[in-house]
Backbone:
């Protein structure tokens, strides 16, 4: 196993504990789990834990985030991994079709793609599964009447909200901007689009790094919250025109487009932390009529020069930038260990039929949240009872 992945797995303490239990209890014995989740070091820990529970796993990655060393480890451990890293959505779709072709009994989805595809071509043995993200919940909630299976939304656990979305995404977005650009944050104007859990963490971390932070959110109540949290909330056009860095994290589409180019400052950096690479219209910006030059410093750091002399820097072509580029680390190990412990326990609840079709696209059951929180805290404070 690669040393980096060894390090991560050894620090996924909750998953290690669950693995030990699963090797005895085998809750997924005889079941196939189909997944389409970002394949990186922490995912290895999750998928091997599910395998320890008896699951036969067929997995593929997400657009642009699959890490080859993680794939190698999974394959060596007997997990079926379909495809290779790709930014091509047609190729990625074909991989997802291959996952569903094995008719998984459980689906561990990330963005709703697998459940939406299942509805196009349903099969009888699907028990249900989990959805990791906000974006997936937004797609799947209107499909409840057709899904009619237990689908537990990990994102809607308070633990996922504060541990990963708020604290960890904020940290990794800051780490990633510096990793990509090596540029200063102090005194820079950072505009964050979207002030949900992820946006709050990003705004907070950049403020902590001495940036001046403004927030744009389409929801006035959320904007008020940002204002009372001490962030500037100027009208959208001003927030765009004053920004040195623009980060989108909304779960929406076409949040920043070619129509914004005339307002942007020379040297602005555009980055997306939302799930789908559609928040920043990268293709539109790269192909805009007033682009006179495109310079690729790397595949993940591109500068477009406009006819008025301005330069716009685009990170990772609008793909989720905290899992892209050189040496992508993603969110902290412990935050993902918490979220993935929720994943394992929720899939186990579906496999054991502890939840039924009335739990279709609903948050993680409260007793699972409590059990995972207790395990984390018990481990942290175990020295007190010894
Ligand atoms: N990068 C990561 O590691 C990571 C981790 C978790 C979640 N995510 C993704 O980040 C995105 C946001 O997640 P969240 O949990 O914060 O979602 P959320 O629903 O809590 O918040 C999204 C916010 O964006 C606002 N919004 C929507 N459209 C907008 C627009 N066009 N302009 C400005 N504001 C807009 C909404 O009003 C809302 O306040 C999702 O796509 C999610 O899947 C990324």
Residues:
């Amino acid at each position: 196993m690669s040393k980096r992945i060894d390090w991560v797995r050894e620090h996924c303490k909750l998953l290690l504990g669950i693995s030990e239990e699963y090797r005895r209890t085998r809750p997924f014995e005889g079941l196939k789990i189909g997944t389409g989740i970002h394949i990186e070091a922490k995912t290895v820990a999750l998928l091997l834990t599910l395998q320890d529970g008896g699951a036969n796993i067929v997995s593929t990655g997400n657009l642009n985030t699959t890490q080859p060393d993680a794939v190698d480890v999974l394959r060596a451990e007997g997990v079926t991994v379909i495809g290779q890293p790709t930014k091509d959505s047609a190729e990625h779709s074909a991989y997802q079709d291959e996952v569903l072709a094995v008719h998984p009994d459980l689906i561990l989805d990330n963005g709703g793609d697998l459940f939406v595809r299942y509805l196009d071509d349903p099969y009888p043995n699907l028990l249900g599964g989990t959805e990791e993200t906000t974006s997936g919940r937004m797609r799947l909630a209107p499909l409840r009447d057709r899904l009619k299976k237990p689908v537990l939304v990990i994102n809607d656990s308070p633990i996922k909200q504060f541990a990963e979305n708020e604290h960890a995404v904020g940290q990794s977005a800051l780490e990633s901007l510096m990793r990509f650009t090596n540029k200063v944050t102090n005194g820079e104007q950072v505009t964050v689009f979207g002030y949900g859990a992820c946006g709050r963490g990003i705004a907070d971390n950049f403020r902590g790094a001495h940036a001046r932070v403004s927030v744009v959110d389409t929801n006035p109540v959320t904007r008020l919250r940002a204002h009372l949290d001490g962030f500037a909330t100027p009208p959208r056009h001003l927030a765009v025109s004053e920004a040195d860095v623009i980060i989108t994290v909304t779960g929406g589409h076409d949040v920043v487009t070619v129509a914004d180019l005339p307002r942007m400052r020379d040297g602005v950096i555009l980055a997306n932390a939302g799930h789908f690479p559609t928040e920043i219209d990268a293709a539109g910006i790269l192909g805009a009529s007033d682009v006179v030059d495109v310079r690729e410093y790397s595949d993940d750091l591109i500068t477009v020069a406009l006819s008025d002399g301005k330069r716009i820097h685009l990170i990772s072509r609008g793909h989720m930038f905290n899992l892209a580029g050189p040496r992508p680390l993603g969110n902290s190990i412990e935050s993902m260990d918490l979220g993935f412990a929720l994943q394992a326990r929720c899939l186990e609840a579906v496999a054991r039929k502890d939840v039924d079709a009335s739990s279709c696209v609903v948050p993680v059951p409260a007793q699972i949240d409590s059990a995972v929180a207790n395990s984390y805290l018990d481990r942290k404070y175990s020295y007190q009872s010894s």
